[in-house]
Amino acid sequence: MHPAQAVVVGFAGAIAVGTALLLLPFAKDGPGSAGFVEALFTATSAVCVTGLTVVDTPVYWTVFGQVVIMLLIQLGGLGIMIFASLIGAILARKMTVRSRLNTAAEAKSLGLDDVRGLVRRIVTISLAIEAVTFVFLFARLLLGYGYDVGLAAWFALFHSVSAFNNAGFALYSDNLMNFVADPFICLPICAAIILGGLGFPVLMQLRRQFGNRLHWSMNTNLVLSATLVLLAAGTVYITAIEWNNPSTLGGLDPWARVLAGFFHSVQTRTAGFNSVDIGAMHDETWLGMDVLMFIGGGPAGTAGGIKVTTFAVLFFIMVTELRGEAAVNIFGKRLSRAVHRQAITVVLIAVAAVVSGTTLIMLLTGESLDHSLFETVSAFGTVGLSTGITASLSPPGQLVLVALMFLGRLGPLTLGSAIALRDRRILYELPKERPAIG
């Protein structure tokens, strides 16, 4: 198989296994087993690190079911091929060329020389960040809320894994609304989400060359710059619009309003936790969050969306065109023309997916445009934020969201490459002509 096909098949297989495990009678609390749609939706949401739910996670699933969800989140965050290659390297002490190709395709690696080292570094970074987040959450739950050691450890472990992998699953029926004004819970979760959303290439380069910005790649510069701008803009936008909304930020102290605004700006990086009622927000806030969720986080990480690099590339292309310049220069380097086509392709496929999904949900369920658009963008961006309609959607509507989560996690280019049976090489060029634009 083509490496991209192997990635798609791996994710589909993980979803199938997760669905089967969640269908077991002891995965669901109470008599009987979970429904097929509920199990499929939850498994897809976990593997695709989205966080949308159709059932109440801490009530509907047993501890076994919650453990399955956590493992699916970890597996989906690291990547199926990366996980498989890690196991192969440990057991066989070697990696085949095909295994290296599959891993490089999923990790967006540009070379095959040290894929084993790449896998090791990705796993090490992931576990290290999750461990640090675990320590902060464990200490706060144990000392600040009176949890016993076992319960504090379980809740801290689940939420640290869910946070770093940008999943948004929580073991509280109201997600994290009880901690809206607690910086010792919100900020460690935000830090894990931001680091996971930067992408592994950025994290590894920062680890090696943190103090030497001149050696940073264009990708690292774009991800960090765009992330800072979008986080700040999102915080100001959400906080300003919701400041006097009594159902969201209006009833909080001023500093808690800023914390909640920042927290939800971080969540639009494709995490999905919420500390206030998303369904009670203003329509204008939803629209702004739609844009942020559509952009998403950094490539080759646990975030979704079209990626901040795609957005930044299109922005610089626009600026270059407005200036009348020939080449797109970013941070002292010239942008490859092939990247122009890739960015445009990703955005057009993403727009088509969101528009199609929104239309289908409106036709199948009769929901309004603002609700349907928010759920669709959240699913495609693998965010997990919801206005509260996901659980009430009809099974066909929920299956639409399943397809969008799968497409959004794999990425339009990866999924498109997997569908294509082979690369077509054209040995000739047609005459060039320029149509009128605008």
Commentary on this structure:
The protein is mainly α. It has one domain (3-419). It is 64% helix and 1% strand. The chain has 18 helices and two strands. Strands 1-2 form a two-stranded antiparallel ribbon. It is globular, with a radius of gyration of 22 Å. The chain starts with a helix and ends in a 19-residue tail after the last helix.
Helix and strand layout, with pairings?
Blueprint: H1 3-22, H2 36-47, H3 57-60, H4 63-78, H5 80-92, H6 97-107, H7 115-144, H8 149-164, H9 183-198, H10 200-209, H11 218-242, H12 254-267, H13 283-295, H14 308-323, E1 329-330, E2 333-334, H15 337-365, H16 369-380, H17 395-410, H18 412-419
Helix pairs in contact: 1-2, 1-4, 1-6, 1-18, 2-4, 2-17, 4-8, 5-6, 7-8, 7-9, 8-9, 9-12, 10-11, 11-12, 11-13, 11-14, 13-16, 14-15, 15-16, 15-17, 16-17
Tags for this model:
438 residues, 18 helices, 2 strands
Number of helices: 18
- C-alpha end-to-end distance: 42 Å
- Rg over alpha carbons: 22 Å
Helical amount among residues, as a percent range?
A: 55-70%
Number of strands: 2
* Overall pLDDT level: 87
What is the number of domains? Answer: 1
Condensed summary:
The chain has 438 residues and is an all-alpha fold. It has 18 helices and two strands. The chain has one domain.
